[in-house]
Amino acid sequence: MSVSNRKTTISGGARWLFLIGIALALSGCATSPPVTAKSRRFDFAHDTFAYANELVWEYHFDERGKWVHQPREPKPGYTHHCFVVARTAKQFFVHARFDASLPIADQRTYRRLVDAVVSRSPRRQTPDEQRIVIPGYANLREFSAARTKLLQSECGGAWQSYFQRGHWRMIWPFSRRHQRKTAEELLAGLRQNHPAVVHVVCFPSLRINHAVLLFDAVDTGTEIRFTAYDPNSPAEPVTLTFDRATRSFSFPTNFYFPGGRVDVYRIYYNWRY
After folding, report:
1. Beta-carbon contacts of residue 201 (< 8 Å; ≥ 6 apart)
2. Residue ranges per domain, the chain?
3. How many CA atoms within 13 Å lie on the side-chain side of 118?
4. Which of 76, 204, 246, 254 could cross-link to 54 by cystine, CB 3.0-4.6 Å?
5. What is the 3-state secondary structure (H, E, C) of the chain?
6. What is the pTM of this model?
7. Are the CB atoms for 58 and 71 separated by under 8 Å?
8. Each residue of 70-120: pLDDT tens digit?
9. CB-based contact 197:90 (threshold 8 Å)
10. Beta bridge partners of 226
11. What pLDDT is attached to residue 30?
12. 193-235 pLDDT tens trace
């Protein structure tokens, strides 16, 4: 769900009222404790999906340097699932364990096991001895390559990207203080091996409305370079950068975003998000 439709800005009071209504409705959700410390580091080659969240549109700069888009042909079959994919990667990381020494199971068994994983909160962590064991495969990358359709059907629908609990936050301004605090909290969490799903936005512009999973970071003193799993780009990690001088995040130019400053906040980590 990098860009939700063809418009680049949101207009009309109805959408604002709708978003505010969601915020009020979700404010009463029950609390969940944060994920606890974990010794194993997130491994991009093992802990990510083999398939991509596909895009409805193709984007590029035209001959005048304007960022434009057109419908993708042929029409993709798995779209608007970036929040679902990022969230589920975290759920497998904190709730599941793969065991390639066990025999490969049947489709019904895997469906039951996947449902069990995604039914557990991404805001919690399961102790090692209570993790859901996925037999016959060494890791999520291998499992998702072999069982793509099953995972795509069981991990959640596109509507879960549109109605993610924390969407209320993007309608409020992001101060430079908030962004600095967010960057520091993300860095501290990653140093304890706490991967974090973040919502990347330019609200009210819809140039980007996307979720990525941060799993590593390097602090150079002048900036923090976060390494992320981008559901749109399963081949290799991407970088989200925080500049300490401007107290701003930036996301690089790629095949769906022209590049530049973005605002970032964590999701799937407490009762409000």
Report:
1. 170, 208, 209, 210, 262, 263, 264, 265
2. 39-162, 165-267
3. 21
4. 76
5. CCCCCCCCECCCHHHHHHHHHHHHHHCCCCCCCCCCCCCCCCCHHHHCCCCCCECCEEEEECCCCCEEEEECCCCCCCECCHHHHHHHHHHHHHHEEEECCCCCCCHHHHHHHHHHHHCCCCCCCCCHHHCEEEECCCCHHHHHHHCHHHHHHHCCCCHHHHCCHHHHHHHCCCCHHHHHHHHHHHHHHHHCCCCEEEEEEECCEEEEEEEEEEEEEEECCCEEEEEEEECCEEEEEEEEEEECCCCEEEECCCCCCCCEEEEEEEECCCCCC
6. 0.84
7. yes
8. 777 888 889 999 999 999 999 999 999 999 999 999 999 999 999 999 999
9. yes
10. 217, 240
11. 35
12. 999 999 999 988 878 899 999 999 999 999 999 999 999 999 9
What are 46's two structure tokens?
């093992």
In tens, the pLDDT along 27-37 reads 333 333 444 44
Amino acid (one-letter) located at 173 = P
